[in-house]
Design goal:
The chain has 3 helices and 10 strands; from the N terminus they run H-H-E-E-E-E-E-H-E-E-E-E-E. The protein has 142 residues and is of the alpha+beta class. It has one domain.
């Protein structure tokens, strides 16, 4: 029982030791899931550039960037164009690990497809979560 209390205290203490830059980044990444009342921008400054899509061709996806347990930006090439996916529920450890895998037999990635978080240096499979619609966005300057 004592070991659990010590580990819990250490984790709590580590969470309090975030630098101001880390704290600001975490807040910005959490805000990335929140669409403004006008429906035209997200809380991190990303601007919506069109209607959400159920599927996107894999050839249009160059890279992915995990912002949190709920938000993934799929970049569309050079520049600031991307698709933002805001998961309906948090995907455990996605924001921490910042990597995932998916499988599809199609030439596109769709909102009903499942991603699986990749965990640890041994690359173990973690939680599996369903994607959500792809919202075309223009990323803010960083």
């Amino acid at each position: 029982m004592r070991a659990v209390l010590v580990l819990g205290s250490a984790a709590l203490l580590a969470g309090c030791m975030a630098t101001p830059e880390q704290q600001a980044r975490a807040e910005r990444n959490e805000a990335a899931a929140v669409l403004a009342a006008d429906g035209q921008s997200f809380g991190d400054g990303a601007r919506v550039t069109g209607p959400a899509r159920t599927c996107v061709p894999l050839q249009n996806v160059r890279n992915s960037r995990v912002l949190s347990d709920r938000v993934i930006d799929f970049t569309r090439g050079a520049g600031r164009q991307a698709y933002r996916v805001v998961l309906n529920q948090p995907c455990p450890q996605l924001g921490f690990e910042q990597r995932f895998t998916y499988g599809t037999s199609l030439t596109q990635l769709c909102a009903q497809d499942i991603i699986t978080v990749l965990q640890g240096p041994q690359v173990m499979r973690g939680a599996s979560c369903g994607l959500a619609p792809f919202v075309p966005i223009e990323l803010p300057f960083r």
